[in-house]
Specification:
This protein is about 0% helix and about 50% strand. It has about 700 residues and is an all-beta fold. It has a 5-stranded antiparallel β-sheet with strand order 37-36-39-40-41, with no helix packed on it. Strands 43-49-48-45-46 form a 5-stranded mixed β-sheet, with no helix packed on it. Strands 1-2-3-4 form a 4-stranded antiparallel β-sheet, with no helix packed on it.
C-alpha cells in the first residue's frame, strides 16, 4: 500500500501473516500455506523461500512473528518451534529448533510419536520480544549481584500511590540502593522480589538518581495476587539506583535480588521472552477426538530465555484457561511474565461447540485472559465485552485494546473488566491483527477480514501524565467518569475502573459491606474512626477485611480490632482493589450516634479523568476540641482554572479563584477561627479546555 492509498499484489497465493523491517522497509517477509515463509530484500520485486527445512505439522494458516526489538529475530512453528536471528540472510536450513510441542497426550515430549488418537500439537499463536544488548558498550565486569530481605516493620499503604518517588507515606516502603560503575559491562539488570503468600501484596519501583539526588522512575511492577514482582532493565546506564518496595497490603517480609548479565563485545540479545499457543487436532472435523490447547514459553523456566536457544522452554500449566482455540498471545511490553491470550468462541476456530457431536462440556466461558505468572495461571478479564470471539490484543500506553469478530474495544487499563468501543468508522467485521507503528506508537494499523485495512490515531497524552489521564481514545468505561481530549476524541478513564459499585448497609448497630468488581483481583475493606465526641482524630484503623471476592460481609460494629469498645463519632469505610498497576479506592462516610450508623455526605471526591482528577477535604469533620482547620485539596487532569467556594447554610464564607497546572495539587484552607458548628459544603468548579466539572464535598465543624 503506497502513500496515496493505492495497493498492489506483489506475491500471489493464500497469504497470511507478514512483517516489515521497520528500519529497512525494502526487507519484508510473507507467509503462504503451511508456514512457507519468504523474504524480499528489494521491496517485493524478488523473493526467496526460507521455509524452515525441518518444520513439521504446520497449520494451513500458521502465524509467524518478528521481534519488535530485533528485526532479524523471527519465530514460526508447527509442532516444532523454529527461530532465526539472521533476518534476511536466513536460509531454509539455518533456522534453529528451540522446542518441541509434542503430542496432545504427551505435551512437550520430543520423543512422542503422533497417532490417530494422539495428534501432533500445532502452533496457533505466538509472540516474541527480546532486550537487545547495545553494541560498543563496556564489556566488563558486570556489577556485583545483590541479595537482600526487607519489609519488616513497614505498614500497608493500600491507596493513592501514583508511582513517583514523592507519593509514598512514611513507613510504607523500604529502599535497596545499588550502583553501576562507569566501566561495568551490564547487558541487563534483573530486579526481582519474591514472597510465599499470594494474599500479601508488595509493589516494586526502580529509580535512577541524578547528581542532585532526584529520583526518576525507570521501571515498576505492581500486579497483585502473585508471589513476585520483577523489572528487567536492558543496558542499564552507569549511576546510582534505588529499588523501592512498597507495602501495598502485606505482612512479613520479602526477598529481593538484583542480578546482572554480562555484556559481550559483539552485542547480541541479553534476554528473550516467547509464548506459543497451541492445539491438538486444530482442524474442524476430528471424528470425535477431543480438542486440547496449551501454552509453551521460555519465561519462568529453569534458565532465562535467549534467542535461538532451547533455554527455559517448557509447557506452562495455564490453569484457568478454557479449552478453546487460542487466536493470539501478546506479551505485556513492561513485564515478560504478563501475557494476554484471546480465544475463539468455539472448540475449533470455525466450528461452534458440538458441531460434529464432540464433547463441549470443557469449553468454558470468556474470550480474553491474562496471566501475570508466565502462563502458570490465567484470569478471565473479558468483563463486559460482547460474547463473541476475540482475535488480537495490543497494549497502548497502559490500556488494553481487544480486536474481536465485531470490532475493536478498549479497556480503561490493562486489567480489563470494563471496555468501550474504540473510535468510529471501523466496519462491524472480524479483526485479524492490530499493530502499533514502529516509531509512532500512537498510530495503530488494523487488518480486518474481508473489509480492508484501517488506521487509528490515539489522542496525544498530556506530557508527564500516566495511563488514563488522557491516554486512550475510547469513551469512558462503564461506571467510570468519561472525558474528551482537546481534539474532541473520547478517551478512556483508568482511574475508576476497578469497582462497578460499592455499598454499605446498616443492620442493627453494625454494617454490611458489598462490592461489584470490574477486575479479577480480590478487594479489601478498611474502617477508620475520624472523630470521637468533639475530638477530631487522625484516621484510626478499627477494622480491616481483605481477600473479598463475592457476597456481603457483615461487621458487628461494636469493638475495634484490638477489642476496644467503639465510641460514637464519624467513621470512614474505604474499599480498595488493584486495577492494573494503580488502585481504585472508594470511601463512604458514616456517623455513629447512640450505637447506630447513618450515612453522611462525601468528603472525598471519586478519582476521575475529566476535568478534576482528584479532590478531597482533610476529613469528614474539622474544628472540635483540637481546633483543626478544614483543608481542601484538588488536582486537575490538565492545566486550567478553578473556583473554590465554602458555604454554610447556603451562605458563602470563603471564595478562592485559582489556576492550576495539570496533575499538580492546589490547596485551600478554611481557618477554624470564625466558624460555627455545622455542615460546610465545599464546591470546586474547574474548567480546562472549555470543559467544566463541579464537585461538592461536605465536612462538619464539631
Amino acid at each position: 500500500i503506497d502513500p496515496s492509498g493505492k495497493s498492489y499484489t506483489i506475491y500471489g497465493g493464500d497469504g497470511f501473516f507478514s512483517a516489515v523491517d521497520p528500519d529497512h522497509s525494502d526487507i519484508a517477509y510473507e507467509e503462504y500455506t503451511g508456514g512457507d515463509i519468504s523474504v524480499t530484500k528489494d521491496g517485493g520485486k524478488t523473493w526467496t523461500d526460507i521455509k524452515p527445512t525441518n518444520l513439521t505439522s504446520a497449520q494451513f494458516a500458521t502465524p509467524f512473528q518478528m521481534d519488535p526489538a530485533d528485526a532479524n529475530h523471527l519465530m514460526i512453528g508447527g509442532r516444532d518451534i523454529e527461530e532465526t536471528t539472521a533476518g534476511p540472510a536466513t536460509s531454509s536450513s539455518s533456522w534453529k529448533k528451540v522446542f518441541d510441542l509434542g503430542t496432545q497426550q504427551h505435551r512437550g515430549d520430543a520423543a512422542a510419536g503422533a497417532s490417530a488418537t494422539d495428534p501432533d500439537n500445532q502452533l496457533s499463536a505466538l509472540d516474541v520480544r527480546s532486550a537487545p544488548t547495545a553494541g560498543g558498550g563496556p564489556t566488563g565486569p558486570h556489577t556485583a549481584d545483590i541479595h537482600d530481605t526487607g519489609g519488616a516493620g513497614t505498614i500497608p499503604l493500600g491507596q493513592d500511590v501514583l508511582g513517583d518517588a514523592s507519593t509514598f507515606p512514611p513507613g510504607t516502603t523500604d529502599d535497596h540502593p545499588f550502583t553501576i560503575g562507569a566501566g561495568d559491562g551490564d547487558a541487563s539488570a534483573d530486579i526481582k522480589i519474591t514472597w510465599t503468600d499470594p494474599t500479601n501484596d508488595w509493589d516494586l519501583y526502580v529509580y535512577k538518581k541524578d547528581s542532585a539526588g532526584t529520583l526518576t522512575e525507570v521501571g515498576s511492577s505492581a500486579q497483585g495476587s502473585t508471589t513476585s514482582e520483577e523489572v528487567l532493565l536492558p543496558n542499564p546506564a552507569a549511576g546510582d539506583y534505588v529499588v523501592r518496595v512498597a507495602n501495598y497490603t502485606a505482612t512479613g517480609t520479602y526477598d529481593a535480588a538484583v542480578t546482572f548479565a554480562q555484556r559481550t563485545a559483539g552485542g547480541g540479545t541479553s534476554a528473550s521472552a516467547a509464548y506459543v499457543g497451541f492445539c491438538g487436532f486444530c482442524d474442524t472435523i476430528t471424528q470425535g477426538t477431543p480438542f486440547a490447547n496449551g501454552i509453551a514459553t521460555n519465561v519462568g523456566g529453569d534458565k532465562p530465555g535467549a534467542a535461538g536457544s532451547p533455554d527455559g522452554w517448557h509447557i506452562a500449566a495455564a490453569a484457568g484457561l478454557p479449552s478453546r482455540y487460542i487466536t493470539s498471545v501478546q506479551i505485556d511490553p513492561s513485564d515478560p511474565r504478563t501475557v494476554y491470550v484471546t480465544l475463539a468462541g468455539y472448540g475449533r476456530r470455525w466450528a461452534f461447540p458440538g458441531a460434529v457431536g464432540e464433547d463441549a462440556g470443557r469449553i468454558g466461558t470468556g474470550h480474553v485472559f491474562k496471566s501475570t505468572d508466565a502462563g502458570a495461571t490465567f484470569t478471565d478479564i473479558s468483563g463486559d465485552l460482547p460474547d463473541v470471539p476475540a482475535n488480537w490484543t495490543v497494549v497502548h500506553d497502559g490500556q488494553l485494546v481487544v480486536g474481536t469478530d465485531i470490532g475493536a474495544f478498549i479497556s480503561a487499563n490493562r486489567a480489563g473488566g470494563s471496555y468501550s468501543v474504540l473510535g468510529t468508522g471501523l466496519p462491524t467485521t472480524p479483526i485479524t491483527t492490530m499493530r502499533l507503528k514502529p516509531g509512532d506508537q500512537d498510530l495503530m494499523v488494523v487488518a480486518t477480514y474481508g473489509r480492508g485495512v484501517y488506521t487509528y490515531r490515539f489522542p496525544a497524552r498530556v506530557p508527564g501524565s500516566g495511563a488514563g489521564a488522557d491516554a486512550g481514545g475510547a469513551p469512558a468505561a462503564s461506571g467510570a467518569g468519561g472525558t474528551t481530549s482537546a481534539a474532541g476524541v473520547p478517551v478512556a478513564c483508568a482511574a475508576t475502573a476497578g469497582f462497578r459499585s460499592v455499598a454499605v448497609a446498616t443492620h442493627g448497630g453494625g454494617l454490611s459491606f458489598s462490592a461489584s468488581r470490574a477486575v479479577g483481583d480480590a478487594y479489601g475493606v478498611d474502617v477508620f474512626q475520624q472523630s470521637a465526641g468533639r475530638r477530631v482524630l487522625a484516621q484510626r484503623l478499627v477494622a480491616r477485611f481483605g481477600g473479598r471476592t463475592s457476597g456481603a460481609l457483615a461487621w458487628a460494629g461494636k469493638k475495634d480490632r484490638r477489642g476496644r469498645v467503639l465510641q460514637d463519632g464519624y467513621y470512614v469505610v474505604r474499599f480498595r482493589v488493584k486495577s492494573g498497576a494503580e488502585s481504585d479506592v472508594r470511601r463512604i462516610t458514616l456517623r455513629r450516634a447512640h450505637g447506630t450508623f447513618t450515612r453522611r455526605p462525601d468528603f472525598y471526591g471519586r478519582a476521575g479523568c475529566t476535568v478534576i482528577r482528584s479532590s478531597k477535604l482533610s476529613g469528614p469533620t474539622f474544628g472540635g476540641s483540637t481546633r483543626r482547620p478544614l483543608g481542601i485539596a484538588f488536582q486537575l487532569a490538565r492545566a486550567g482554572s478553578a473556583k473554590v467556594t465554602v458555604a454554610k447554610g447556603g451562605k458563602t464564607v470563603l471564595t478562592r479563584h485559582l489556576t492550576a497546572a495539570g496533575r499538580t495539587t492546589r490547596r485551600v484552607e478554611l481557618p477554624f477561627r470564625g466558624t460555627t458548628p455545622g455542615d460546610y459544603v465545599v464546591t470546586i468548579a474547574a474548567t480546562t479546555n472549555r470543559r467544566t466539572q463541579v464537585v461538592r464535598l461536605t465536612s462538619r465543624r464539631l
